[in-house]
C-alpha cells in the first residue's frame, strides 16, 4: 500500500513538472543594470546646457570647459536628437568606491570672447547636465519646512551673479569646483556594486597654488588632497573676467545606499508637496465637471420636456406639426459646406487619439520610463506613423457618408494637411535655432529620417486604411435629409456667433488654473513620470 502511495506521489510530481516553464527576463536596450567591482572605471558623460529662460539648449563644449583629448559623441536615438541631447565623453573619470579629493581637471585662461560667453550663459541661468550609468546629475536641495526635506534639481548652474562685501557692483562667478557624490548599492554576496544615485554640490572657488603650474600635480592652497581637505564654502569665489585664470577641480565621494537598482529612479521622482499643486488641479477639474454637468442637465430637461409634449398630442394635426427637435431632424445630418475639411480633421483626430492611447498603455507597462532616455518621443513618432491606417479609414468612411466619390483626393489631403503644416513650422523654427548655433537644431539627416517616416510609412498606411474604409458600405443617416435646407430665422442678439464664442470660451477658460503648473513642470526640468500627472494634462487638453 505504501509503495502504491509513493508511486502515485511520483506521478503527481512528474505531472506538475510538465506545467513548469522557464522564465525569461529582459531589459530594454540601454537600461540594463551594470555591476562594478572596486576600482572599476566610471566614465561621466556630459549632455546639453539647458535654461528655463531661453529654451535653447547648447552643447557642453560650446563653452570653454575642460575637454578630453578626443571628444566622442554617444549614439543617440531619434527622440534624443529631437530633444536636443548631445551626449559626449568628459575628462571626469572616477574609480568605483575610491574617493578623490581636489582633482585638477585643467586650467583655462579666459579671453574677452570666452568671458562674454560664460557671462551670457550665467545671465540666462543655464544648467550643466551630466550622466553616470544612465543616471542624470542632480543637485539636492534641502527644504526643512517641507515633508520631503530634500528635493532634486536637474543639473547645476554654470555660475551665479553676486556682489563682493561692501560693493554694489554685480559680478559673475563660475562654478569651477564640483563635489560629486556617487551612491551605490552593494551586493552582500558578490561584493559587486550598482550605482543608484549621482549628486553634486557646485562651488565657485578662486584656486591658488604654490610654485609653478605643473598640470594635475600642482599643489593647490585652497584644497589639499594629501590632507583630504576639501572645499567647504566659497569665501573667495572665482570671478569671470577677461584674462582671468580658472582652475577646474572636483571631489568624489562614495556613499553606500539601501536603495536597490530597480528603485533608484524613485528618489529622483520624489516631489515636494508644493511642487504639485494638487488643489489647483482638483479645483480646475471640479469646475469643469460642474459646468459640464450643468449643461448636460439643461439638455436633458429640454429633451424630456419635448418628448413629454409629443406624447400629450391629442389630434393628428398636432402630431404632424413640427416643433422642438422635429424642426431640425431633416437638416441635422446635412453635409457641411466644408465637408472635406471635417473629414481631414476627424481622421487626424483619430490618429492623435490612437497615438495617445497606445503611448499611455506603453507608459503604464513601464516601457517609457525616464531611464529610457528619448523613448517617449521616439514611441510617439512611431505610433503616430502606424496610426495612419486608422486616420485614412475614418476619414474615408465619413467622406463616403457625405456622398463623396473622390476618395484618393481626401486621402491625400488627410495624409498631407496636418503633417505639412507642422513640418513647415518645424523647419522654420529649426532654421532659427540653427542660426543661434544651438544643439537643439535637428540635423539634416534626422530631418530626412522624419520625411521617410512620413512619406515612406505614414502616407501608404493612410491610403491602405482609406481604401479599406471606402469599400465599406456607406453609413446611413437615421433620418431622411431634406433636399432644400430649412431657412434659418433671424436670431436674437445673444445668438450672434461672436457672442456665442465668447460665452463658450468660459468653460475651457477654467484650464488656466492648472495650465501654469503644466508649463512650469515642462520648462523647469522637473521629474514627473507618474501616471496621474500625464492623465491630468490630457484632461486639461480635453476640456480646452
Automatic annotation (TrEMBL):
It is found in: Endosome membrane; Golgi apparatus membrane. Residues 1-22 form the signal peptide. Keywords: Endosome, Golgi apparatus, Membrane, Signal, Transmembrane, Transmembrane helix. GO terms for cellular component: endosome membrane; Golgi membrane. It is a multi-pass membrane protein. It holds the Pfam family EMP70. The keyword Membrane applies. GO terms for biological process: protein localization to membrane. The chain crosses the membrane at residues 278-300, 342-368, 374-393, 414-435, 447-470, 491-511, 523-542. Belongs to the nonaspanin (TM9SF) (TC 9.A.2) family. This is Transmembrane 9 superfamily member.
Amino acid at each position: 500500500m505504501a509503495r502504491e502511495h509513493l508511486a502515485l506521489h511520483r506521478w503527481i510530481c512528474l505531472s506538475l513538472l510538465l506545467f513548469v516553464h522557464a522564465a525569461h527576463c529582459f531589459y530594454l536596450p540601454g537600461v540594463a543594470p551594470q555591476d562594478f567591482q572596486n576600482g572599476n572605471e566610471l566614465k561621466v558623460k556630459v549632455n546639453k546646457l539647458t535654461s528655463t529662460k531661453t529654451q535653447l539648449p547648447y552643447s557642453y563644449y560650446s563653452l570653454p570647459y575642460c575637454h578630453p583629448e578626443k571628444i566622442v559623441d554617444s549614439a543617440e536615438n531619434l527622440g534624443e536628437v529631437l530633444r536636443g541631447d548631445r551626449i559626449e565623453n568628459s575628462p571626469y573619470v572616477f574609480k568605483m568606491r575610491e574617493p578623490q579629493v581636489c582633482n585638477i581637471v585643467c586650467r583655462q585662461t579666459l579671453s574677452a570672447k570666452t568671458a562674454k560667453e560664460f557671462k551670457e550663459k550665467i545671465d540666462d541661468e543655464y544648467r550643466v547636465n551630466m550622466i553616470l550609468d544612465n543616471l542624470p546629475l542632480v543637485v539636492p536641495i534641502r527644504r526643512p519646512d517641507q515633508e520631503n526635506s530634500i528635493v532634486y534639481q536637474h543639473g547645476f548652474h554654470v555660475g551665479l551673479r553676486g556682489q563682493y562685501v561692501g560693493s554694489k557692483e554685480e559680478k559673475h562667478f563660475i562654478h569651477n569646483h564640483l563635489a560629486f557624490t556617487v551612491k551605490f548599492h552593494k551586493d552582500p554576496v558578490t561584493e559587486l556594486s550598482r550605482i543608484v544615485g549621482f549628486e553634486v554640490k557646485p562651488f565657485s572657488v578662486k584656486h591658488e597654488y604654490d610654485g609653478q603650474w605643473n598640470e594635475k600635480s600642482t599643489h593647490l592652497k585652497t584644497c589639499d588632497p594629501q590632507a583630504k581637505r576639501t572645499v567647504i564654502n566659497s569665501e573667495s569665489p572665482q570671478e569671470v573676467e577677461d584674462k582671468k585664470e580658472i582652475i577646474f577641480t572636483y571631489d568624489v565621494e562614495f556613499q553606500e545606499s539601501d536603495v536597490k537598482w530597480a528603485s533608484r529612479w524613485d528618489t529622483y521622482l520624489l516631489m515636494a508637496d508644493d511642487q504639485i499643486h494638487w488643489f489647483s488641479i482638483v479645483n480646475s477639474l471640479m469646475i469643469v465637471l460642474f459646468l459640464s454637468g450643468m449643461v448636460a442637465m439643461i439638455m436633458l430637461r429640454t429633451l424630456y420636456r419635448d418628448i413629454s409634449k409629443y406624447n400629450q398630442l391629442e389630434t393628428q394635426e398636432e402630431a404632424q406639426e413640427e416643433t422642438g427637435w422635429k424642426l431640425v431632424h431633416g437638416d441635422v445630418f446635412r453635409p457641411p459646406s466644408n465637408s472635406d475639411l471635417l473629414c481631414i480633421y476627424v481622421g487626424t483626430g483619430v490618429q492623435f487619439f490612437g497615438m495617445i492611447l497606445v503611448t499611455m498603455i506603453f507608459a503604464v507597462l513601464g516601457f517609457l520610463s525616464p531611464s529610457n532616455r528619448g523613448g517617449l518621443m521616439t514611441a510617439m513618432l512611431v505610433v503616430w506613423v502606424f496610426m495612419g491606417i486608422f486616420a485614412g479609414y475614418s476619414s474615408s468612411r465619413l467622406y463616403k457618408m457625405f456622398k463623396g466619390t473622390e476618395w484618393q483626393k481626401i486621402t491625400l489631403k488627410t495624409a498631407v494637411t496636418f503633417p505639412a503644416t507642422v513640418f513647415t513650422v518645424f523647419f522654420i523654427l529649426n532654421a532659427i535655432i540653427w542660426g543661434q548655433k544651438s544643439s537643439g537644431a535637428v540635423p539634416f539627416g534626422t530631418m530626412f529620417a522624419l520625411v521617410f517616416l512620413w512619406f515612406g510609412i505614414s502616407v501608404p498606411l493612410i491610403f491602405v486604411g482609406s481604401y479599406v474604409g471606402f469599400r465599406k458600405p456607406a453609413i446611413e443617416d437615421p433620418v431622411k435629409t431634406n433636399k432644400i435646407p430649412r431657412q434659418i430665422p433671424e436670431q436674437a442678439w445673444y445668438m450672434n456667433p461672436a457672442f456665442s464664442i465668447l460665452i463658450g470660451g468660459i468653460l475651457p477658460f477654467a484650464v488656466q488654473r492648472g495650465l501654469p503648473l503644466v508649463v512650469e513642470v515642462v520648462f523647469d526640468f522637473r521629474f514627473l513620470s507618474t501616471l496621474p500627472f500625464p492623465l491630468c494634462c490630457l484632461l486639461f487638453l480635453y476640456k480646452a
